Amino acid sequence: MEFMEVTVPNYSYVFNFEKKFIHQDTRDWMQNNWTYGFYYCGIYMILIFSGQHWMSSRQRFELRGLLTIWNTLLATFSIIGFTRTAPELIHTLRNYGLYHSVCVPSFIEQDRVSGFWTWMFVLSKLPELGDTMFIVLRKQPLIFLHWYHHITVLLYSWFSYTEYTSTARWFVVMNYFVHSIMYTYYALKAMRYSPPKFISMVITALQLLQMVIGCAINIWAYRYLEPGQKDCCISKHNVHFSLLMYGSYFILFARFFHKAYFVGRKNTKTSNDDYSKKIKSN
């Protein structure tokens, strides 16, 4: 595939570790070690479900201090990642249009900033598995959406990086943005602050919007994979996997949104009404 030469955003400052980033080295490592993702996911599954069994007869751990540090670190990382990758997406859309943003990969040799933080994004999916251990050790409900989401994002991110998938710039920026808000919210909760309740609803709504945009980007890219269309740096296998993943996420997040913010509120209101009636009757 041949694409026109492009310019990169005018970053106000480029760190030395970004300047030294060599995208081909990281790609070679991912291609040579792609099976590691499956091993990590297997270990993850064993740990969380055996951990639940082990915790079933024990008191929950509070872990509030560790949880505060954990969420603060992930929030900080996500905010930095967003501020370093969003300029490239905005620059591409402004100067080259939607087709280029969907079909030409961003982590090319010229843009080492975007390349480095895309690589960091992929690697971050491994430590993010640690979210689940807090749920297990604090004996909170572990829903299917949680661990399914963690596993599939890790595997898909590693797979896509080896292909230099062009749609990744959209997925990376969106995920960094949502996680910036989500982990900041969790950090504040762990610190015993009480952010407005509507923020949690906004976060889930943003996750749903992320899935809708993800599906739309994949469908847009798939159009260019038909014979006679323009080049697009994404495989049909990748589009199929991504659509299945984003589609399933949308269904699961929509179900969670409905149960958490509509069914849950209805049940709470009913319980409060019943309690009020009981008080009045006494």
Molecular structure report:
- By secondary structure, this protein is mainly alpha-helical.
- It has one domain (25-268).
- Helix content is 74%, strand content 0%.
- It has 10 helices and no strands.
- The chain has helices at 16-19, 23-32, 36-55, 64-103, 112-124, 130-137, 144-163, 168-190, 198-223, 236-281.
- It starts with 15 loop residues before the first helix and ends with a helix.
- Residues 269-282 have low confidence and may be disordered.
- One of its GO terms (cellular component) is endoplasmic reticulum membrane.
- GO terms for molecular function: fatty acid elongase activity.
- Belongs to the ELO family.
- It catalyses: a very-long-chain acyl-CoA + malonyl-CoA + H(+) = a very-long-chain 3-oxoacyl-CoA + CO2 + CoA.
